[in-house]
Amino acid sequence: MKYLKKRNVQIIILLVVALIVYVFNSQYNKPHLNVAKEEPGILITSKKLIDNYKEDENKSNTKYLDQVIKVTGKIADITTKNNKATITLGEGGLLGNVVCQLLPSENKKVSSLQKGQVISLKGICTGYLMDVILIKSVLTN
Amino acid sequence: MKLFAILVLYIVTINNSFSQEKYFTNKGFISFYSHSPIEDITANNNQVLSVFDTQSNELVIYGLMKSFEFKKALMQEHFNENYVESDKYPKTSFEGKVAGYNSSNKEQTVDIVGVLSLHGKSKDIKTKASLTEQDGLLTLKGDFTVAVADYDIKIPRTVINNIAKTIKVSFDLAYKPYNK
Question: Which of residues 3-62 of B touch A (CB under 8 A)?
Fold first, then answer.
């Protein structure tokens, strides 16, 4: 009887340790937010997004920062560096565009796009420099 | 934080007759690297804004902390929420000068001196960089190290061995001439 109890305790300890390792490991290796599967909480045009940021950066940050936003606008520029494509939405002046870095999974679709086309994409807003910036963007319909 | 916007506009728009001597990028690359016996951590930011005025030798670089992308989501979370407090200090900046630039050289080494600000702290930085010119485009590349403690970044005891005391910062900025 005593032996059985000791055995049970050992099994419980083992299970608890395994659970801790599992939780720790899944936290440590938890995946990035999958933007492609995420429903954008905010839909906006590139012009409106820029105007909002120009008007009040702090207020806009509380609204848009870390959010998945769907932005619609005219392609001002497309560049690719280190296998990462960047699409600039807006009027294409030096400043005041939405600069969106795309996920590598979008590279093929990006290559069929052209300047001047109006497109929509969704990405995570990281803030405002002279442009509004999105990362991990994917093209949407 | 509006200050830097004014500064960039100032550098970009002043002396328009010399506009061919101002170089601009909003897709510059900055990464940092932390090496420790337990793990190596890298984060990349491909959306850095920079203006280099080859006439006045002024160099400004701005980046968003949240644009740094890590391999592991948890690291990115810790970085933004606990270490650099990106909600409170969303931007990093470098403002300084490039010394030893000679516009007739296609490839050269320059000295960069200036102030790097992040997490509400500012420190002087001095480093060398390579500056190359090809087809009218300028590329400024180099790296330097910063001490985590200099920027008042507190690393919790539990992960103190996972994160290096000094971080290597690399930059690769490909400029286009600015034409209004």
Answer: 5, 8-9, 12, 24, 26-27, 29, 46-47, 49, 62
pTM over 0.90: no
Closest residue by Cα to residue A38 from A66, A68, A72: A68
The rounded distance, in Å, linking the Cα atoms of B160 and B166 is 12
A26 lies in which domain range? 1-30
Distances (CA, A) of B55 to A95, B12, B133: 21, 12, 16
Over residues A29-78, the pLDDT tens digits come to 888 889 989 899 899 999 999 999 999 999 999 999 999 999 999 999 99
Residue A40, chain B, CB below 8 Å: the answer is no
Count of domains for chain A: 2
- Find tokens 């790296």 and name the residue: B143
**A105 SS3 class:** helix
